[in-house]
Amino acid sequence: MKSVIYPIFSAVVLSVLMLFQATVQAQDPAPQEPSGDDVLAVLNASEDHTIFSDLIEEAQLTETLQQQGPFTILAPTDDAFEPMEEELDELRQSPQQLQSILINHLFQGEANSEEVEQQFNVEIENGDQEASNGVIHSINEVFTSQGGGPPSP
């Protein structure tokens, strides 16, 4: 049963990501050259996002983030996860709940850091990290409300 639920849930995740396209789709006025790596590879190579990268793998979202995109990722730093150590342990025991939390940080379409800060009232620590299939913005908070996404302005 578990092996049937995850592919279906992954399809739902992709559908949700596509729904967010209208919310964050924008053009970067000064695009940087993509690194050639997809957003997942860029996150995995980052020393500041080891927890987020591990959680993406645990929640079985790796295949989704290796697709064409484009994606905008609001990637919490490792420091952002420190205050929620106990809650994080609980989330790791529930892959579906973990996926719900992580989806709050993943969006279809590309938006530059200024647009993300204005749209979601969030402070970008390191923005506009280009990848072959999207852009990553480092943030120092975790959006924990399920299905709620980042705070609205």
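That was protein one. Protein two is written in the same sequence-then-structure order:
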Amino acid sequence: MFDYNSNKRPEFKYAEHYGSMQNIYDMLQAGEPLQMDGRQFEFFCADLLLIEGFINVEVTKASADNGVDIRAFKNGQEYIFQCKCLSHTCSNKAVQEIVSANTLFKAYGMGVICNTTFSQQAKSLAYTNGVELYSIGTIKHILDKYICDFYEI
């Protein structure tokens, strides 16, 4: 996880694709939905993972990515992520996609990041398969901690 007590913040690799963390934080604080397309959301999620202490975070190509939107490393282990920017609850399909993708990648960890919430079926399937879910609540929590602590708000 990012050392919030240090003066060094992560170097965001992809901010030119979605704006800034501060702007995203302000939108979420105002109760506004994230205004970005799916590809922009993938770039935002990659930078969010940097806050969470991941390194070598890479967004995969836009198509033919075998169900993986982001590859990242933490503690020497590879993690793969599926990102969903939706206007409705995230179903278990996203969880199925990342579990299926891991048969190819054989990553240590899997996650699904969504700008909304997850259905009960998605939560259940994720639990059964060891998939970490990042809902809008998790995203807000990460940004709250990062923005408030780093900028001493």
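The chain has a mean pLDDT of 88. Keep this in mind for the problem set.
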